[in-house]
C-alpha cells in the first residue's frame, strides 16, 4: 500500500530500503515529490527524511528541529546582560512618568505619598487595560473612575496633556490630516470632537474629573490614581539591572562608519555573496546590506548581525530552507493539510476573502480556485492580469493547529533564533510574559499572493508602504512562475501603451472586471465575485492557458523597498506633497490622508522613487528576495513589497531589546491617530514586555552568576 495515497492497487511501488516499512507509488512521487527521483525515495523515503506530506503526516504533532546548539551558560549570561543594558533607559522613563504622577497626586491630597499609598487595581492575570481616551495600553500607574457603573481608565500621557490643556489623542493627526476640499464630513467631525474635549478640563489642583458621557465617561466623579503592579516593583527592577550591568557597557554606534567586514567581503571571491548592493546614496556607509548564508551562522556572524541591527539596517539571510526538513510549501500541500484539519474542527466554508490589487476591493473566492490561479495565473476579460492576495491565511489562531508541520518547519528555518524564536528567543522580549498573560499576536502569519515580473503600473501585487510597530522577519518559502506567452505579453504591452497617459484606468476595466459592483463595508470595500460557478471558474482558468511557447520570468520572488528611519520625515513630506497622484480603493484617486505611512494607501513605483530622490535626496534600500531568503526589517523602517512571481511568504514579529525605544516612538505615533484608524490600538504593549523582559533577565543573570565563578569581573566588557 502506498503510504501517501493509501491505495493498494498500484503496480509501480518504490520500497524504502532505509526503514524497510514505507512504500510510495510512482504517481504520488511525481505529483507530491517532483524534486526527488525514485532512487532517492528508495534510499530514504519522505517519511524517513521527516518531510512526508501525506495527510496523516501533515497533522502529526512534532517539535521543530533544533538547528543550533543550546546557548551555553556564559552566552546566556551575556544575552541577559545585553537585554538589561538596552532596556534600562526605558525602565527609567517608565518610573519617571510614575513618579511625576505620584507627585501630582501628592499635591492633590496635600500629603507626601509613596507607591504603597496608591490602591492596586483588581485584575485577572490575562486582563489588558487600555486608555479609554487614546487607546494606548496602560503599563502600571493610571487613573480610574471609582464609579462602578463607569470605570473609565486614562493613561499618564493623557493626564499630563489634559493638565496642559491640550486636545488629547487626536490633535496631531488632525493637524497633519490632508483631504480634498469637497470632503467636509471629516472636518465637521474633528470640530465636534474638539468642542467636546474643550469641556473636559483638569481642576486647579491637578485633579481630573471623569469626562463627559460623549467621551465615554460619566462626569460624576474624580478620577483616582491606581497601580497595577506591586509597589516599587519597577524601581527594584532598575536597581537590580544597574547593579548587574555596573561593569558592562554597549559600544557607541558610529553611523558615519561603513562595516569593514562587508567592505572586505566585496573583494573576496568566497564571501562576496555575503553582501548585497541595495542603494547608491552619496553617503555610502550603508549602501551594502549584510547577507549571510543560514548554514554559516556561527558566533562571529551573530556579532556581525548585531552590528548592523543596532544601526537599524535590514539584513537578508540566504538559504534558510536548508535548515528545515525539506517539507513542501506547495500551495496544494498546504491546502490539503488545512482542509483535513478543518474537517476535524468544523464544517466551515472553504471560501476566503482576497484582495484584488486592481481596485483594492475584497473578493470572495474558493481557496482551491485561488491556489489554481496562484500556479497558472488568472486574468480579467480585457486581458489584464488579475492579481489576488491573501493575508494571514490561515489565520494565526489556526496556523499551528491546522498546519503543525509547517509551523515547526518555519521555526526551524528562522535564523538568529535568539532574536526570532517566538517561544524561547533569549533576545525576544515578546517571549518573557508570564504564563497565563494575554500575549500579542505576533504570528507566524502567511502572505500568499500572485505576482508579475514587470511593474504593471495598475493592479500590481504589492504590499503598500507601511511601518510595523515591532521588528519582523519574513521568509520566502515558495514561488511559482506564471508563464506568459509571446501573444499575452504583446497584448499586455498594447493595453499598457493605450492607457499609460490616462489619469484613471477605471473605465478600461469596468466592462471586463470579474467583480460586480463594489459596496462599502466597515473597514474597506468588498465586491461580490461570481467565480464559484463552474462556468465562471472554467473561464477564469482558461484565460491563461498556454497556447504558445512560454517565456520565463525572473527568478526572484519579490522586490523590497525599505526606507531608513532617518529619512522618514522627508518621505512623509514627499507624500504630503504628491498624495493626490496616488490611487487606492476602487482605483480612485486617494481623497484624504490621515498619516502618509500608517494609512497604508501608497505604493511608490519607479517614477515616484525617482522623483523622491530628485526632490528630497531620499533613496530606499531596494533588493530582490529569492526563494529561501529571510528579510529582517527593523521596527520603524517604512517598507513596501512587490511580488515578481506568485509567492508564499511566512513572517513572524519579534521585539528586540535594541529597538524598544523605536517601538515606543511608533506607539506614540499610533496614539495620535483618529480612534477608528486601522493602526490605532496598541496591540504590542511594549512597555509591559520591557518590564517582564527585565524581570526575567535579572533572575537569569543572578542565577548564572552564582554558577559561573568570576563572571562578575569578566563582565567588564562591551556586550555586542
TrEMBL record:
CDD domains membership: cupin_RmlC-like
Record-linked Gene3D superfamilies: Cupin
Entry's Gene Ontology molecular function annotations: chromatin DNA binding; histone H3K9 demethylase activity; oxidoreductase activity; transcription coregulator activity; zinc ion binding
Localization, UniProt: Nucleus
Any Gene Ontology biological process: regulation of transcription by RNA polymerase II
Top-rank taxon, per record: Eukaryota
InterPro entries: JmjC_dom, LSDs-like, Znf_RING
Domain RING-type: 2-48
Domain JmjC: 422-671
Main localization (coarse): nucleus
Example of a GO cellular component annotation carried by this entry: histone deacetylase complex
Cross-referenced Pfam families: JmjC (PF02373)
Known cofactor(s): Fe(2+)
Keywords: Iron, Metal-binding, Nucleus, Oxidoreductase, Zinc, Zinc-finger
Family: Belongs to the JARID1 histone demethylase family.
Biological function: May function as histone H3 lysine demethylase and be involved in regulation of gene expression.
Protein name, as recorded: Uncharacterized protein
Organism listed in the record: Cuscuta epithymum
